[in-house]
Amino acid sequence: MSIGRTCVAFAAAAALAACTSTVSSPPPSGNIIMDWTVDNTKDPAQCDASGATTFNVTLNGSNGGFAGQWVQDCRAFATTIFGLIPDQYTGTANLLDRSGAPRTTSVQLAPFVVFAGTTSTVAIDFPASSFYSKPITPAAVAGGQQQ
Fold first, then answer.
1. pTM of the prediction?
2. CB-side neighbour CA atoms (13 Å) of 21
3. What is the set of domains in the chain, with CATH numbers?
């Protein structure tokens, strides 16, 4: 091989080496299915009759930090939250009306653990006693009033 060809070959190899990159994998994550009932049933008529249009859940990680808030149509009775980092979580869930006002008191979720590569289920029930007798405004909730 001549010196010219050697230099070209060396330059090409150096250019290829400089252009390589490492692709890192995303951090491992797990999923949670929030599975709810209204007075121990999955009857869409219960959502309609109560004026509840939206399921609302807020999760916090083991350090107490906000992990996220998710919403789903009340009549779905389940939603999957994807991509949670492995950790122990707590949170609250409630049902909202179409304007975003609470129709139920908040249900405190028992602590649960998310494991990488798995999907687990958290069961939640909104008993009849958790519903407000009439829709309340977000301002009333902030002021601590219940109706």
1. 0.75
2. 4
3. 30-142 (2.60.40.10)
Match 């999955």 to its residue by tokens.
Answer: 42
What average pLDDT does the segment 105-124 reach? Answer: 97
Query: Could you give the angle at the alpha carbon of 25 between the alpha carbons of 61 and 122, nearest 5°?
Result: 35
Encoding tokens for residue 108? 């405190």
Whole-number pLDDT of residue 80:
98
As a whole number of Å, the CA-based R_g of the chain is 25
Residue 30, pLDDT > 80, answer: yes
DSSP, collapsed to helix, strand or coil, labels residue 134 as: coil
Separation of alpha carbons 51 and 46, rounded Å: 9
What long-range pairs does 103-109 form, CB within 8 A, spacing at least 24? Answer: 103/50, 103/51, 103/52, 103/131, 103/132, 103/135, 104/52, 104/130, 104/131, 104/132, 105/130, 105/132, 105/146, 109/57, 109/59
